[in-house]
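Exercise 4. Each item below gives a protein and its sequence. For each, produce the structure-token representation.

Item: MFS transporter permease (Streptomyces toyocaensis).
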Amino acid sequence: MTIAAARPGAAPVPPDGAPNGTAGGRPSRALAAVYVAGAVTALGTQMTMLALPWLVLETTGSATRAGLVFAAQVLPMALLGFAGGEVIQRLGARRTMVVSDLARAPVVALIPLLQTLGALNLAVLVAIVTALGALAVPYHAAQRVLAMELLSPHARSLARANSALEGVQNGSAFAGPALAGALIPLVGTTSVVWLDAATFAFSGLLLLRRVPAGCGGAGGSAAGPRGLWAGVRHLCGDWFLSRAMLSTVVFGLMLRTLMITMPVLAFARFEGDARVGGLLIAALGAGGLVGSVAAYVLAARVAPVRLACTALVCVALPLWTLLVPVPAGVLVVAVGLSSAAAPLANAPLMGLLSARLPDGFGPKVLQAVVTISTLAGPLGFLAAGAVLDRAGVAATLWGVAALATFGSGNLILALRRLQATGAPD
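Answer:
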């Protein structure tokens, strides 16, 4: 039995593995709308990630208060993350995305409006930002659930959709802060926040117009598991998904540790040359963006298991170069290669995961995956800081390479076992 066939009630897979609702392999208008809406929303959000702390710095000069505003954006995912699956299950993926977008537009607009009226203080700003974070909780999982509904259950189709969504996030994370940094001196911080509000309104209206109302589930269905922890229980109860989730957490810890270690490495090994630190961090972002584009192309041409296994080797192997006293250029290339390989592995893995889910399990399981992956980030930052302080750069880099190797090896073994049970080769 193939992985695609393991999803009960799924639509028949087209002979060429093309998505449902497409012509000649091209995305349907509905799927294209999901991609465009995700890109516009993510770009606005990333711009605001710079604009809001900058607004606090302009008005108070306090880095502590700016950090508080930043934390308020992330905290709702930690507190409410697993509830997002319940929201998607009750409302449906399309309605969840539309409600999230159209609700966030006026909430974001409150910030520049109150600032103009002289009524914005720190407590009000933190409350607004926390509300924005809460409204965003189910959004990314809903994107993937909706993409699943618009595609065939074939693992290659789902892998390509996930690579597109990941590319949207990587591209926005790369371009959003840079665009905000360029616009703030030209039009002012509040104007950038107004632009973010407009992106949410545009995204919600685009989804309303281009994605049919029946897509992504109508909500309120009895199908699917019930309970806040249903997605976690399903992850733990499936041998492949539990192994994949373990590696996801390990990679989350490794990546955050790597991000913090890069400037420290440049400072310690290259006599405090900030240019080297900047290049190493830039290589992480640029590699992820290039890898997302490559994943979109290769996901339709290379079998998911083969693509994932090859990419996982390329995630771990270059990181061992960081332990060797080599020129800065070699380190930049190694970090870039490892970063580029990550979306090449993630796209087929998410495709296999999505295709493996029984009907009705998508909202809870995908929300659990998003939440657990997000929670791994702050833990990685905290752990990295402690290890750097106590053990130094060399020991931390050993830890980074070891974590990457363990995460990759664990997943490769799981994928080979999955392949033996009928996964596409």
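Check: Residues 1-26 have pLDDT under 50 and may be disordered.
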